Amino acid sequence: MSGAAASAGHSALLEELTAGLPVGGEWVATNRGEAVRFPHDGSEIAQAPVGDQALARQAIEHAAALRQRVGKLPSRVRRRVLGGVAAGLEQVATAMEDLLVLETGKPRLDCRTEVVRAVATWEAAADEVAHVHGETVPLDLLPSGDGMTGFWTRRPVGVVVGVAGFNYPMMLASHKIAPALAAGCPIVLKPAPATPLATLWLARLVREQLVAAGAPAGAVQVVTGDAEVGHTLTTHPAVALVSFTGSAEIGHHIARAAAPRKVVLELGSNAALVVAADADLDAAADAVVRGGYYASGQACISVQRVIAVDQVAAELERKIADRLPGVVVGDPREEETRVAALIDEAATERVLSWIDRAREAGARLVAGGVRSGRCVAATLLAEVPEGEPAWDEEIFGPVVCLRAVRDLDAAYALVNASRYGLHAAVFTRDLGTAFEAVESLEVGGVVVNDVPGYRCDIAPYGGVKDSGTGREGPRFAIEEMTVTRMAVIRR
Prior knowledge:
By secondary structure, this protein is of the alpha/beta class. It contains 16 helices and 22 strands. It has helices spanning 3-17, 53-71, 75-91, 93-104, 108-128, 169-183, 197-212, 227-235, 248-258, 281-293, 310-323, 345-360, 389-392, 408-416, 431-440, 474-480; strands spanning 21-23, 26-28, 32-37, 44-50, 135-137, 148-156, 159-163, 187-190, 220-222, 239-245, 262-266, 272-275, 305-309, 364-367, 371-372, 375-376, 379-382, 399-405, 423-427, 445-448, 468-469, 482-490. The chain is globular and about 70 Å long.
């Protein structure tokens, strides 16, 4: 296809996707639209439809009306739908990658990874449908159970509301929609206002597969909009579970407002990478660069804090600094780009202000710390004091902070002093040190000799403390989205 033909096809697709929102069994026109912009240059990609509170209520009420029907869909139908979506995504992988680059502004490599992981998530969810089952219970352990048979099954929890962040919109939507359908739950998804397009495309693919399998299209709906729309969705009395991915501040607010509904929260972090004295320093430096700046640092498990023991801290700093000129900053459409513009100007200003604050508090700027066009250059700070947001909070930008400590005990204590606890990593050649890290670090996942950003989409994923509650990954999300039902039968 020629470039002109491809561009025309892309424009036609965007026009179709933005004609309305998938609410109920059809696509419903909205009263207004809002520009989705390419972060690299601010140009408008499309006018995306914007929902309102009335549309949010309509979506929840439609989902509630379908709850019993969706919950009774045969396993073979649910598996067919999930597998069909995975195959459909593979067929449009390159076009979806292009859209994600434009919508999120992430480097192309990261958008390609997002598509691959999304396909794997749908495939894994299809596999898990066959494993949603229960167990028998030996009721005759008590005399009162003589002559009785007991067993439990897992039943769909009911209507699910998913709220996704802007940084990996299609993958985050997949981690909510796929397990919900596998569990037999209708779902209403609210994408981030800045990045609704890939989610709308995904929803269209899913609804096509639902209809082809004889299931209702309204099992998956999408409503865009502001915080009031989100509040309406997450507090509606017909909702059984809310699954949110985003900042800790908003997640905690949602959890309070949504009570007594069940809430699964995948929140932020300031992921740490610990380097022991016996570590392979070249491998550790490579990991810091690879894990600190991917997705322009806009990932909740990107390397933000590097904690190295005194014996190797200076050499590690030198090795990281030597690698930074190879981190290409620029246009995310180019294959070699590793750091691009952040999602918007407000995010850019916040990251730069946190860098300036850290320097004023005594941190040493090793590299970066400045604008490069609309981008923040890949930045390395040393000796950032505790109490500074660049160290304490989630910076969500291409910034890595390095500190030296006397030993591994001090390193683990520094990791655990954070209010966050999502993923952490340790570099060591010693198996005992590796197991000690697994035992000592208060996080949801410990990665040995790789980046804390490593995530296998079939594994349990989630945090402790202010990093969230509950777990994602198809098997574990399905458990969150189902409840046990006990059956007792007297023979």
